[in-house]
Records
---
Amino acid sequence: MHKSIQELFERLPREFRVLYRQFLLRVVDLEALSIQADVIGFLGQFAGVLIMLSMIFVVRLVGPTMMMPPALVPAFLSGAAWSSEQLTISTMMLVVGIITVITWDATFPDRRDVMVLSPLPITPLTILSAKVSASLSVLGLAVLMLNLATGLVYPSFLGSLHGSLWGVPRFFVAYWFTMIAASLFLYGSVLTVQGFTSLLLPRRVFLRLSAILQLVAFGFFLGVYFLSPTIPTLAEWQAPENQWWLACSPTYWFFAVFNQLNGSLPTELAGLALRAWIALGIAVVGATASLMLCYLRTMKKTVEEPDLVPGASGLHWTPRLGNPLQSAIVHFSFRSLTRSRQHRVAFAFFLAIVFAIALAVLRGELSTAAPEPLSPDFLMSTYMMMAFAILGLRSVFSLPISLTANWVLRTTQLCPSQKYIAATRRSMLVLAVVPAWLLSALLSFPLRPFAQVGGHLAVLALFGWILAELSLIGFYKVPFTCSFLPGKTNFQIVFWGFFVLFITVAIPLMFQEWEALHELSLYVRMVAVLIVVAAALWASNLYRAKSAILYFEELPDEMITTLGLMSM
């Protein structure tokens, strides 16, 4: 089968095959996210995570049936069917949404495409076809891997509930068609919004608005996933309090399509299925039209109009965040995160984790009317939000934004190195520690008693300070300005290594704080220890910074190459 696919691929036009391979490497920034920029390794790890998630869904449904009498299995599966199907569809749409946001600009032409490909005898339609095919390849891999286990196990378990000979194959076809249709709807909707926005606005304004839309889309997909309720019965589908969710959430629309194709859709939900079919048609037609118009009408704008919007005349005010050098580097770091797609996407991955944890906490608080007591789960959630915010910012600090920033700071270094290192610390505190702390404070308002909540926020501030100091040990460069050696990030190793280390440290700290919040003397001793640790790390970094030398170039390790000849 692999050989036949390869032969079919070789029959395609050579221009398409070459562009497809190149665009496939650029769908995701492999230099920043993969180990040694290995495409196969990255896609393999990506597929492995999705397969594991699919296996978890299968165990969640099938596992309880292994521990109950066979006579009770049909009743259990019948009750759990709707919940499992809704969870699978909503997770599929979340994964597709996140992939679409990560590959935000991968489908539309950029300046490099126009400058390199315009002089060549390649039609815009060939470029468009290659880019869309590359993006759909990654999207198709995600759909296949995420549903690899559920798409095979669910039909055999849930399809047999219909009792007919065609129940299992019909369930199988309905399941896979629904997953593909939901993915195309979400992918097409994002492309439609991007395409028509770029057509209606000047390119430089679109680039600024596109960054905002990308971050909003991250938050929107996560918010819908974590805040949307699961509706397991027909009576709850007909309840007045759920009608707003049914009307607005595409998850329920495609759940209705799945049951319509499966032959189990109640007549009361036929309108939701019709809404899904209409939305799918609009998304596909809109994406096709917007992409065609962009490649035929706006490719010249990519070269003719600047990418950055010139500053508008009028009064400008920027907050002072320390001395002038510290303020300049903090503002430079913030603008790098908002203007650079590479930094924005990498940092948004960690912000998505922070936002997901916050939404999970918020959903639990919204489900109870009375004020909740402070719990160990809330302590752990705030620790995780703080840790991932700091890890995310520290991860993107090493990625350069432009060579211009490199030589400007190198030629204007009038202050000692310790002043620049102090400004880097200020950037970490302002852009990671303070936002995570404020988010935790907002989530703690419904919690009681206030004395314990205030005590925890004080401990959380010290915890963030300690993590910030630890993350900057040996970091003697200005954020986003040091040249970068491709393939050395080892993103997966850093992420999972940090996660394991964090769990081993945070769990004992959580139990220690939980006991301290109920005993004043223990709390005073704990805060004193944290202050001493934070002050010691700060003093150590300050002492090292006095003799440190800023570096702006990452050089490869010196290696001695031998011919491997042995003397006889």
---
Amino acid sequence: MNGPVTQAQAEAQDRGRRVDADFGDLPLAASADAALDRARSLGASHADLRVQRMRHADLSVRDGALSSAVDDSDLGLGVRVLVDGVWGFAGIGEVGPDAAAAAAQEAVELARVCAPLVTAGVELADEPVHAGVEWVGPYRLDPFSVEQSDRAALLQSWSAPLLASRAVTHVDARLRLVKEQKFYADLAGTTTLQQRVLVEPILTVVAVPDDGSGSQTMRTLGPPSASGWEYLLGEGWDWAADLAELPDLVAERVAAPSVEPGRYDLVIAPSNLWLTIHESVGHATELDRALGYEAAYAGTSFATVDRLGTFRYGSELMNVRGDRTAEHGCATLAYDDEGVATTAWDIISRGILVGYQLDRRMAREQGLGRSNGCAYADCAARVPVQRMANVSLQPLPAGPSLEDLVAGVERGLLVVGDKSWSIDMQRYNFQFTAQRFYRIVGGRLAGQVKDAAYQGSTPSFWASLAAVGGPRSYEVHAASNCGKAQPGQGAWVSHGAPATLFTGVNVLNTLQEGSR
């Protein structure tokens, strides 16, 4: 396991930026002192305060015309305590010493009310003190400094040439922005101040054929990113190329034949495989799911703790890492919501399950050492829960390119871009579609097919991993809508993958399946 991010490393990541003054100048230290002093005086053995502001902006353009625009924020604080091994939490929508002290008192009272229901006390894994650290994510241009009219103008400029194409009937463009600011303090002496921005542009073209054969869509492949406005201007993704090919791609999809079901060798591009990693590996190796704690929202996990260190998750080519430090990763922070310095670690090594995603409670409970920094809350009113890191399949240093993988397949499909997905509550049986499937015949691409979905069980699918691409085939994609917990919380998370080859995978025709 790699060591935690040091204070020097965290400061280096700042890149000269500072947390916005209108957040940093709030009475953060005074609120922390009031909350922690009140919790200590009422008998808490552990207490932490989190001041959090989340700013959200969503903008939609339909056929070149602005259809909706939202820009709002929420600010508040949350106090979490341990009293005689029992959790208590309270959140409030204001910041200041009085509000913080009141929240601490409410949290202690809740812990005492819950005590008769608790059968085993909570203990937390040890963590060094990290005092006075400030971290700002790696972005250059704050997207919230861009006028709303300029945001709309960008989406309109993207839409206009697509609407001019005879192949395109409608164009839907959406931009989602988030700025997250957090201050954390606990009784041990840790204090952290962090800020990051997240951006997600999506553009979808719709083709409605005159012959009534049914509409088809095609979407940009560019992922969400923990980046600034510069990302939308072409730093980190070639949006011009992504957009330019959409009319031809959707036209080809309209004319494409329906897939013949059967077993195929699949060359899966990173733009599709990231979502399969998210659902079949990322969620499955969240330790709260494996322990049965996260059962009500999308289930538990087949990857139970008795299998740690012995269970064969996939072929020996399968090496998966969890990483809360990856540059521009959507789950990247220097410190989590328990004051833990984030790190990177192995989850699957040579096909064997060797690690989980942890918070401090579960790390201590299972004797796994320190937490790997996976506690997170999406707003001040929510208690931190174990959330997914950036979980990525590692490339082989001398691995092949995507083109090389295609050239080695006699009969198969190239799978590009994510679309719909379905997976059971144990993260075991699944089915995935894609933006596009291409036939591979004799090592060459032979045009798109439609109505396809690949299915399998997690261990059998990953056991069929026959080739892993090299670093030049590696891409990072992401989700902005990962849901968990009750009340529900959302999170952004990235997943990297190289191009890959899976052999003998079952492919369905979704039209035929839907008619049964």
---
Amino acid sequence: MKRRKYGINLDDGVALSTEEEFRLLYVPCNPDVTACLQGWFSDDAQESFMLGGQIGSGKTTLLREVSRSFINAWIIIVRFDTDPIEPTEGGYSMLLFGRILTVCLRAGVEIDGCGIALSDFPSIDADSWHAFANKTTSRPSNLQEAGLLRDVCAVMTENAELVRRSCGQLLDSLRDMTSREPIIIAEGIDKFNPGTPEYFSLKDNLTFLAKRKTLFEVNAVHLFQEQDFRAGIRKLFIGGIGEDMLVQMLQKRLGSYAPIYQNAFSLIIDYSGGNARQALRLLNAYYFRRTQRQNDHTAAIALACHQVGKNLLNMPYGRFSTDIFTVVKRDKYIEGSLLTDPKTATGANDAVYHNWLFVQGEPGPATPTQWPAIINPLIDEAIEWKVDAPRTPEEKAIRKWAQDHDVSPLGLNLPLDNNRELAWDKFWEEIESSSEDETLNILGVLEEIGAGLFGIERQDRIIITYRKRKNLEAVRDFLVGEANTYSLFPCEEITLEGGEGREPVMELLVRLTDRDPNRIYSVELTGEWTEPQLRDLDHRRDILGNLQMLWWIQQDDLKLYLRFWPQLRQFFRIYRLEDELWRGITMEEIQVDIDFIKEMSDESEPEGVRRLLNVLAYLKDAEGKP
């Protein structure tokens, strides 16, 4: 996205990627890990290792920063989350072979004789290895092409071990030709929750890559899944970011305006739990409340915590181990064995994978099994624990404001049953109910999302839920039409229908083949989405970065979807339309906007005019006017 050189650069924690972004916004938060990464890239003798951290800890940004210095190395990047044509062993194997093949062709490696022949894959009709590499590593332009690639995946599934042997032979040939050990970066493994079918389909490829010079980008929970990679594999962990580094991060995002908001830094950092993305989302929400809603400092902090907490954290209390929760609160660490013991692994892994707990750092030598950890402060604040130290006056004021205004999860009390013992089921039910999204009319939604909708300096991804389907088209036309009163923003409408026999994720990939950051993508989810389809969409979260997107999901459907989207929801904000959503909108104001767009545009029928005319017709029909 376009960044302001001197002004404010807020977003919801998208990883940095461009030279401009690193120059303006990068903060070296993990110097020791950075030094280890630089040494690994430089030294052929170093073997594979895992770079692990929780969602939003800054893994991708750090990896991109280090690898920028090695652009001339023979680096093979395999994005297992976003790039496979399908989430199967054949899909992952085809992607791996295609990426290795591409680099080998660039280096001049002889491909024939590697154990795989072009004739093995007649469906895609590739007349050369260059054509084969291009087709198997590029996003399909239509569903028919996707179907032909799935035929290749089917062949590779049946011959997966042969494919991996061929990959090994090509890597050996590349090493011999370049006199350097090829570097493989296996990205996106952090998007796979252990225990899911997709992760199981990926594991044999991980085992193969662990025998090569491979960097695995993983979630913290994968550091405890050593058997899925290689026994004794080296591990680097990115934990919580220190206060000084977080202050620098907030200052760089606010630019010259930082002194105006610095009184909020300490609380934003406290509530972030040392997580970079959570800190940036809190800053984003706080800034909006202060500047657009004119809330005072106390209200802005409380509402920012409420907004970010309900967007990021989905708390299905039935799956959470309350014993782990209690022990971490008391001891400030989590035993590593809890993430591997079959009796506790599911609850412990979920707690870490979903960021309900934050692992702060690696164990010390005196306690090698105890990983320092805290409860995510946005959850922790939901409980009136017996505090060991008195709260600051500001903390007391924020909690009181939240209680007085029924803002959750701030201000809840720890529930007790009739025997004065912890009633955990009741607590988690309260947490779940507190994550209900506030209802807004159309002007409220426009105000909340306008910063992204009206400019090119940021792209936001918004989920808007509704109860009445008939309102959706008029609301969409209104938002896109209003955006066009600021600048030309064409809109591409996409409908993704889930269900057995459907291909909604592939349809999305096809529609995003030519990504345009200056376009508004309006995506409606319909149908009966299956669990594999929802997980597949979650894995591909990063293809949505730096796009302006409005997603429309029926309210009850979203409640089912969110538990499958721990990754996807990191890039989205969620708003719910109220029934009387047109309150405050007049037809006269719509007509004024229509006239303004006509006057400013050279087009005969600007998109903004067309959409606002639809809104005008909708309002006239609703009021029974001719």
---
Amino acid sequence: MNRGLLRLWRVGRIALRYRLDLLVEHPSLARKLAPLRFFAPRSRGIADLPRGERLRLALQELGPIFVKFGQILSTRRDLLPPDIADEMAKLQDQVAPFDSDIAVARIEAALGRPLSEAFAGFEREPLASASIAQVHAATLPDGKDVVVKVLRPGIAQHIEDDLSLLRLLARIAERHHPNADKIRPQGVVDEIAATLRAELDLQREASNASLLRRNWLGSDDLLVPEPIFTHTTESVLTLERVHGIPSDDIEALDAAGIDRKALAAKGVRLFYQQVFRDNFFHADAHAGNIWVDPNRRADPRFIALDFGIMGQLSREDQYYLAENFMAIFRRDYRRIAELHQDAGWMPRHIRTEELEAAARAVCEPYFTRPLSEISLGEVMLKLFRTAREYELTLQPQLILLQKTLLNIEGIGRQLDPKIDIWAVAHPVLESILRERYGPLRLVREFARQVPEMVTHAPDMPRLVRDWFAQQNSGEHATILRSRELAELANAAQEAPKRIVRAVFGSGLLVAAAVLFALDDHGPRWLGFPASAWLAAGGALLAFFFARTPKSRN
């Protein structure tokens, strides 16, 4: 019997021992699985455990890759029932360490030099061990304390073997699960595979840490350890060593004199700043990866660890999510429905009024509670689940964000059970949106694009001349019969004049962008630089003169 069949046999026996067959709700598939129960090992009391706990115990026994699978699956709360999602979130990635001699050999091979040359000191006993890697303390030749993370031997092949099994199970689910078209099992496995493969590239994790550190360098709110690229490869990661208290260790935080209320509020603000200001957020923000600096009491600071899973959003998703949050703050259910359709998350054939009623049904009960008891993450999760009934399509990044929001709110409420998350989040988000979509940001964006505009500027006279030549030669002539096309023809007659005026307005806009890029210290009117007003005027002129005559009536 080959390796694959042996692995499948072991997976099947463990699944039956923990009565995972009882999780199958489809009657036809349940009947097909019934004969297999005769082969199930007898374990007293297991069948009486809650289904989520049975699944968690089974994944733990199946090994580290299945544990990692369960952890990642816990991020898909849009797909899992709450009881199972909660149990998946409890999975602890604690695995027996592998031999230190193997770890040393792998580090030396990856760095291309002896351990004694790369480090002044190296502790052979690992600090921690997980399913994919283990961590050792070390000291660089310059005396800097670091930690060295090294991948487990054979981990890449082990992951591929188990992913093959997951794909087989996904194909079975696609054929037999009644909601397979909504759950998309193969897509879920592909998402998990991408996440696992990304975690196998420690050079990528170092780059993630570097960017996050740069975003928060010198901050009083978040400390990110420095990656040491001279001692980092795809299979070995070296980071500055930091010391902290896990954010869920309330007794230790109180013993250290940490202001937990201030810390909780900072955690909420950090989330919104990472997502909407930096567009780069820590997407695995559980208490094991989020520590607290023990040396900062009155003005506490978080410490971020483990940068294998980071999140980013497109500009469009950033905008629509931010507007969704603001609409929830204002209880504007019509706006929530419109945003879901404008973002392309919902098909256009669904009536906006239906979505508005569904959003109202989800959100309104929350507003009967005190604001301090309302969870934005929970509201967003229920909105997504409700919208899924209306053919909602979400990107994995949005699921990561929603899961991260739940984690951050959970940490915040552990630190300060009375925290009013809405009161903390609203002004932060409002300020970020004002800065992000205000006139100064518009001018800065145009200033950034000035080099490209200048590059293409010499071509503009030729393009305009060619356009006029085509008009004069009649190459664009069309026989118009309908009233709408006749109006379009009238608009075309006005086009040459509008082009000249629009070019003038655009010229003002480009000039303002150049001025802003060169000097942001000129005269200011009503608090804004003159270049910002010039840009706004140019944009209005370009927009006004570029419209059709009908649109100006």
